[in-house]
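QA checklist item 7 of 12: single-chain prediction sanity check.
[x] sequence parsed
[x] length recorded as 496
[x] structure emitted
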Amino acid sequence: MPTVPLPDNPSLEQLRKQAKDLRDQARAGVDDALDLVAAHHPSGAHPLTLTGAQLVLARCHGFASWAQLKRYLEMIERYRRTPDEVDEGADPAGQFLALACLRYGEDDHPTRWERAARLLAQHPDLAGSNIFVAAATADEAAIAGIVGADPGAAAREGGPHDWQPILYLAYARHDPELTEEATLGAARLLLRYGADANAGYLWHGLGPGFTALTGALGGGESDQPPHPHGYALASLLLEAGADPNDSQALYNRQFGSDDGHLILLLEKGLGRGDGGPWRRRLGPMADSPSELVRIQLWWAIVHGMTERVKLLVEHDADFLSPFGSPSGPGWAGGSDGRSPAEVAALNGSPELCEWLVERGAPRPRGTGVDGLIAAAMAGDRAKVARRSGHIEAARAERPALIVWAAARGARDAVALLAEIGFDVNALGRGDVPMEQQWETALHRAAASGDVELARLLLDLGAEPTITDARFHSTPLGWARHFGHPAIVELLQPRTP
């Protein structure tokens, strides 16, 4: 049965009120309330009690019981942090820590870390009396002095982000010259005195957890840098018991082409085990280890990351079963129960599809709308011509397919799609193959800096004055934001 995500920043009091409202509406015979009860109560109870309404609400949100939902919300409250909203304050130690560490907000930028370095230079004695500064600066001598007098300091939460010291170490970015010896020495000392290798927090109360391992490896939608010795620190954390099934670390690093993090995590047990303490805390809201690997496989396939796909398959990723449905765990968006080989074909990777087939995956049938889309994304004019009877249905099913083709950098596919009637100015998603009105194909060309693709789109009739739906910016604005002067030069005369 499909479940409904919890709202942002959910509260137990808010959900108690919703349960009372559901009870009253069900007793009053409101159709929507009765449908919800029928779908989620084991006996379709009527008249509905408050306890029954709480059970229905819990199951609606994916929890087996109200008690399980309550425990989850208590856990959210315990680990919720908002580092991107922390003010610098007047205290030099707090200022330094707020500036030095990744916050995963809009202002993660080298200028903040440079300010932190200057502040530290002005106050060189900060580390000696503050365990959090000592950890962030990897000052082993300072840490030794503090934990020698107060052993519990190594695992105590505090500082501006209310983190354990090891998190400040893992997320600090103020000193690119920090040595590996200092980093690992400080980490070992903290761990020896009780620091948790799985320490972490929930960013704005949202799962998955941002762990020390997440901080060491860096990455994210804004391409936050790893720790200067990220792999060495990550290896040490894993040896000390950090669980390799780190959902946030996987997500943050999936955008880049470097597979070093996957090699490390797979060697240390990614895809196996029970998921560790964060999965136990998050319960049904967290993907299992095998689901995490499948999500990574899906991402690699739709983005044409052939070497990553091979790496995952060689480490026993399931490449035979269809990807999950939108209501199930481990769902890979836009796949709708299709197999990995089918997804490869649909996203313009026929060679990758063939590689999977050679290893035992069922060959996609290549018929109907899927066959037309696969041929178009591969830029195969002959196959598109043979499947021309499905063009209208394909345009109805994937009206913004040209946006995804542009995001993949598939110029032949872009030209072919425009030729068979796909709207070159359609709004769609460029991060995953799903229909959602976000940006145009020209926005994607501007973001990637692909001048030839931008020229092609303009020749095909792309309108450079269209603004995207999320940031309300033109392709020229995107080119400026991503620092692509050649695209700026191309678009500026065409954008009033």
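[x] summary fact logged: The first strand starts at residue 80 and ends at 81.
[ ] second reviewer sign-off
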